[in-house]
Every structure is written in C-alpha cells, then in structure tokens.
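Co-fold these.
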Amino acid sequence: MCQVDEEYNDRLEKRTVPAVSQKCVKCKEGSAVLIIRAGDAFCRSCFKEYFVHKFRAMLGKNRVIYPGEKVLLAVSGGPASSAMLAQVQEGLSRDAPKKLRFKPGIIYVDEGGACGQRLEEREQVIAQLESIFRATGYPFHIVHLEQVFTLPSSVLEAVSAAPGRPEGSYKAAVDQFIQNSKLDGSVSPGDVSPAQDSALQDAQLRLSRLDTRDTPNGTPPFTPQHGRDLERLFASVRTLTAREDLLQTLRQHLVLHTARAEGYSKVMMGDSCSRLAVKLLGNISLGRGASLAADTGFSDPRYGDVVVVRPMRDYSSKEIALYNRMFGVPSVFIPGLDTKAPDKASIQRLTESFVTKLQADFPSTVSTIYRTSEKLHTACPPQNTDSEPSAKCLLCLCALDTKVEEASAFHATLVSERLSQKRVTESPGVRAGNTNTPASGGQCCSSRGEQDGSCGGGGEGCCSSNRVPPSLDLKSLLCYSCRLTIKDTTALDSLPQYIVTEAERRNRRSQMKQEISEFLLDEEEDGEEAS
Amino acid sequence: MPVLCSSCEQKRAVLKRPKTGHSLCKECFFWAFEEEVHQTIVSARLFSPGETVGIGASGGKDSTVLAHVLKVLNERYSYGLKLLLLSVDEGITGYRDDSLETVKRNQQQYDLPLKIVSYEELYGWTMDAIVKQVGLKNNCTFCGVFRRQALDRGAMMLKVDKICTGHNADDVAETVLMNVLRGDIARLRRCTAISTASEGEGVVPRCKPLKYAYEKEIVLYAYFKKLDYFSTECIYSPNAYRGHARAFLKDLEAVRPSAIVDVIHSGENLSVREGVRMPVQGNCSRCGYISSQALCKSCVLLEGLNRGLPKLGIGKHHRLHGKILAREPLTQEEERKLKAVDF
Ligand SMILES: [Zn+2]
Ligand SMILES: [Zn+2]
Ligand SMILES: [Zn+2]
Ligand SMILES: [Zn+2]
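Predicted complex below.
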C-alpha cells in the first residue's frame, strides 16, 4: 500500500501530468489526467474511484467501526482531514451495499490561543470551517484549547474498554443492524435526508453554547482568564519541542472529553501516510518508542472506551492534494505553533523537514518508514490486564515505559543525573564503595535537579505556587517522553487543574498502597480500580 | 565569575557535560564518566570474574577510551578480568598503518597484550585490493562483513571469552534511526541489545560497555586524559544512508541534547509484531560461521572476489549457493550479471 510515492522515480516525479494522448490504464477509455504511480495514468473518474475505494477498503479491512456507531471526525481544516470528511460524505451517500453505516459528527479544536493568533483571525477561521461543516449536515463541535481549564479530572482516569466484541461479532452486528432497519422501516442512520434537520438544529444549539462570539443567549465557552492562563502555560514551556508535545496532549484530552460527553465511541484522525512517517520518526526521537504502535497504527485503543482510528493512513499527502484540487474539497489554512519556525526549532519540525528532503532524494523513504509502523507493537511493559490504572501515563495515557530493567537507557539517564550533582553525605572516598542504583520509581536526586532548574529559571517557579503542593510528584506518573516535556515546563502551577487534581489523587493512592504494602498478598492486584 | 563544579561544589568547573548540561570539574567528570560505564557493566552483567576479554581496538577514540576505562575499572572494582587488545588490519594504506601505530602505543601504555589479525592473512585480500576490484561504492559491505569475522577469528586464537567493542550511544542511536529509514525490522530489533550471546560455533559473545556514553563525552574524556588516538574516518567513505542518519542525529542532539539517549530508549522499547518473519540462523556450510543462508556472507563475498564476480555477495543470489558449494561453474548468463561492475 501507499505506493504512490514509493514507485515514483525521478523521471515520473516531474511528470504528474501525463502526455496528451495517454489513455487511462484502468478503463482504457477516458483520457488520463494524472499519473499516480509509475506508469499508472488515471482518468478523472477512475482516480476518484480508486481514491474512494481505498477509504472503504481501509475501514473494511480493519472492521472496527460498527453500523450505527457514533464516530467523531477530527478535522483540523488541513488537506488530509478535509479529504477524510469528504470521503465520509461520499461513503454515506452511496447506495447499499457499499454504503458506510456509521453516524458522523465533527470536532475542530481551535488552538489559536496557544499559537498567538488574534481573536479576529480565530473567528475568521472558525466562520470558514463552520460553513464547510454546516454544508455536511453533520453535528459539529467547535472546541477551544482554553477549555482545558474547565476539563474534569475524569478525562485522565482509566476507563475500561467497552464490553469485548469478539472478532466474529462484527458480521452479526451488521446483520442485526440491517434487520432492525427493515423492521421499523426507518432509513439507515447517517442517511442525510431525515437526519439533516435535527443535525442542523443540534449543531446550531451547540454552536450557541460553544462559540466565542457574542451570541444572544449563549455563554462563551471560556473566560478571558482562561485565555491568559493558556498564554501563561505555553509561555512557561522553554522549548518549542515541549510546547508542540504539550499542545498535542491537551488537544487529545479535549477530543477525548468531547467524544465521551457526546457519546462518540470512535474518533477518526486524518493522518496521511506522509504524516505518519514523520510522526513515527519524530516519536522515536522524542523517546516515544514504547507507544509507537498505538501512535501510528490504524487504531489506538489506549483510552479504552473511545478508540482512535486513522483511515487516511494509506494516502500520501501528494495524492490527497491532487484529489482535493480535482474535486474541489475545501480546506482552510490555519497557522500552527511551528508554522514560521526554522527547520531546527523543534524535534518535530526538524523531523518533518528531514523526511521531506530525504523523500526528494529517495522516493521510497516515506513508504519504507510507514511500513515499519505496521510491523511494530508495544513491547513494554508486558500487557497485564490486572495492573493498576495508574500504570498509564498521566498525560498521554500510554502504558508507562519507565518500569524497565536496570540495564536500560532510562536508568542510564538517572545515573548520569545523579553522578553529576552533589550528594548529601558523600566524598569521593565513600563513593568508591557505593554502587547502588536509584530506586526504580525514578525519584532520586534527578527530580531535585529538575526543580532547581525550574525554580531558578522561572523566577516565580513551582515552589512559590499554592495550587501545586510542593510534594506533588508528577514525574513518577509520567512516561519517559512526557517527563521530558514537563522538564521543559518551568511553571508547573500553570498546568490546568484537572491534571493537578488527578496527579494528587494518584499520589495519594500510591502512598496508601505503600502504607499497606506489607499486608497485600498479590503485588499486581488492585482491589478497586482494576480495569 | 568562574562556575563551580555542580558535583563537588568546590573546584572550578572546566566543562559542561553534553549529556546532562551540568558543569563539572575535571576529576568529577572523570569520576562520573567511569562510574557510568561501571553501572552499565554491572547492571547488564556484562562480565564474570576470571574471563578473558578482548577489546576490539581500532586506534580510534572509542576503543582507546574503552581500553583505558576498562583497565581502570578492572582494577578499581576488582572485576578479575584478563584484558587484551584485539586489532584488525584491513590493509588500507595510509589509514590502517597509522591507526595500528596508535594501537601499538596503547598496548605499551596500558601494558595489555595485543593481537593483530589481517584481512590478507585471513582472506588473502587486502581492502586496497578489494577496492581495486569492486570500486568505492560497495566496499563497506566487504569491510563490515570481513571485520566482524576477523575479530571472531582473532578472539578464537587467543581463547577470548568475550569481545567488547567501542560502540557508543551515538552509534547505537544512529543505527536505530538508520534501520527505521531502511525499514530493516530484524536489525531494528537487535541493534539496541547491549550484548549478544554466543550464537553458534566460531562466534564469540560481544558487548558494548560504552552503549550509553555520548560521543562528545568520549572525546572530552580522551582530551582531558590526554589519550592518544587516531582521528581520521576510514578513507573509503561510509554509506550514504548512514550519513543521513548521522546528520539527522546531530541535528536532533543540537535541538535537545537528550535526544541520543531518547532514541535508544525508543529502540529498547520497540518490539516486532508476532508473525513478522525473521531469518533463521544456522551455520555456514563452508567455514562454520553463523549464517542464515547455506553460505555465510563472508564466504560468498570471498568467492565473488576469487572468481572475479564481485557482485555475487552484494545482491541476493541465494540460489547460487549450491553451485558455489559444489564448486560448479556458473552459466554464462549468471556470470554476465555478476561481472558488470556498475557501481
Ligand atoms: Zn479511467
Ligand atoms: Zn506520557
Ligand atoms: Zn568537582
Ligand atoms: Zn562461511
């Protein structure tokens, strides 16, 4: 799959427009309008068929979306997620049996507040998107990043997966669905005509609740104070790398919360294979190797009740651009955190420019990296269904990758931190005999070093805060990579309250467990919250 | 105002650790560097008392520092190891001559036994002669394959229990990135292992005690310890793809210094989905060395050189292994394909 780029060679790369007389390789009739891979010249309608088929094939192959299920489409306004929206529309409007049968809704997360956009610019973008969304007739949710300051801490709690649907039950569910539709004589949900009115009303209702503009009876979704809080939070993050990572995490929390609140059990993300290749290499560079499979695979089950799927993963960005241009799929350009940043401003940015340049020299780069993602799965920690919910990272909610053996990169970094700082009761003479390694929780002196850094750097740093108790141990609750992000965050008291609250709860719980540890018979057993 | 060492808080700091950003005095840096290698050795249980350990010595900075640190630690912590230096002479005029001189000086300084095995004596070919036949594009394939086996053969001659090599954190991270770029899942899985058990006859277990040491810190260590090393890259330049991975890693390090060890952490926590096919290891039916094919890579390359068909070992020509083993001639068509040196 994803051969579009793979099989290009330099000659063809420059020749996406075929020679005048060329015929379509598929129907042998229509005159070709574009070449999508070596030698394959497609006419307009065959290209559309190929593109549309790929979407359905991806969903069909993976069989995770059930008929009638509510699916939230995460649309950023960019080409890939806009093409995804167009594919869903296309799929829902088809005749049975090729028809898609889920109930879509749309979410857009407005990140302008973290990217220094003016309010008017943000309103303009939102207005454009609204008109696109409204035209679909689907319910849509415009969420602002500022709303993280009103999120409940339950977003971060582990939720057990929906009652298991064994492999074979997919077909049964489809049959059942068709049966029901016949019985009550209703039209399939997702069918536009009857649903349209209510969807529109629904959307308008929600809009009045969420929109920032002064609507007659709606309350704005966030206060000016939240706007300032968000600015302060992002200003306190020292590096663009960490800012981008934090933004990604918060955005994910908002999407997750909206999905749960509105009853969506699937979220569709528009990552193309070009995007996923960058993400895969970038995440390796960020130390996110352990969750690579979930971060870049077709489906990401980490949230339990809400599953993220990536149906655009077989399309290259080039293909998407061609499709959007040819079939008038609207997209909106929205500047991001790193839009004007130089290549080496962050790990994510650097990775993107590296992959893009390498792709230009070696046209199989993207597809090779992408294929790597299909061969990986999570190795660490061993999947234990009985393990505590707190074994997931507080921020990204991936399985914690910090309980690894002593001979590991993670412990090596702890050792380096420890050996580079003054230890309380030690002289080199004493140290010679001391070969202890730090406690596996990773709470050795390195956490001290971090606090030194953040207090010294920020001025009004973490210690002066009264919202964050000085004893709060965030670190032990975070995965390897989120630790790096938090390490670059100088004012921990600017974190949204739901994160602090959940961290405190987990701290208390682990303290509790420590106190009663000698009475617990099975280390893995957790009475209350096993998921 | 002079910066104080963040470890002893007494002496003036002379360097900023590339790995952690801490400012340290010379003594505290030496201490931290050596101690970290010690922690690596202890936590990964790299050695057992009484073992004979061959240090793969190239005369470059990594193996020079490795030899020095291992000697220090062996005495400080009474590992009880018998250390010796193991060198390979690839037969590259102007490059190996100089670096071997360095190894010989090291041998005297550290008072460690030294064994040099040469390609010429093992294979009947020097790298210079190989390059003359195969050109510059694929010579690293030959060199890599031959060196690996040469170290093993040298180790067997000296009855060495383990070989340790100077691979540092940068090398490991770079290899992780390169294997991702090449989509080489089998290597991606193996490349972060700190040690390899003996995989069969003729293969000596290997380990990388400097796996978590930054290249820059190795240079700093050598600089302040005034260690003598030979600092030129191989004159037959390395492959382009590794070059890209290296440049990318350097950029990553510049953005976030921990990136090197972050990449290794990623590599250590990846694993391969079940059902992805991995090559089965067996033994070469000619020389007995470990191999997933009937003939090991080294024997195929050698056969290619000796028959004047250098491409034999470069592509995938497993079908021909039977003929080679039976010392049968190849067909004209087969010869034609393998002869053309278009690289
Ligand atoms: Zn056609
Ligand atoms: Zn995390
Ligand atoms: Zn000092
Ligand atoms: Zn052999």
